[in-house]
Design brief:
The protein has 107 residues and is α/β, with parallel strands linked by helices. The protein has four helices and five strands. Strand 2, helix 2 and strand 3 form a beta-alpha-beta unit.
Length: 107
Amino acid sequence: MNLITQTEDFDCLVQEPETIIFKHSTSCPISSSAHREVDRFLSECAHRSLHKVHVIEYRSVSNYIAQQTGVRHASPQVIVLRFGSVHWHASHFSITLDALTEQSSLC
């Protein structure tokens, strides 16, 4: 899982055919649960490129992603982009292995 620390990192990702962004709070137990689901997804789809933003440490990047995608910030949150357009997003307990697998076309 690649860490996004700058807005430029995100700008590069929107050129990809499919990009998965995971907004994670390092201090939230619900986010820890979502992180386990994301890790399970990556273990089944190891070839997937998934990018994580630590929302506390990189708040400006998280806000930038919300502004660019039009998806209101939540944490934890997953946003699936296809060529820069929002295909799907989920937050909190809606972030599951099954949901991620269903929404990711490349798994």
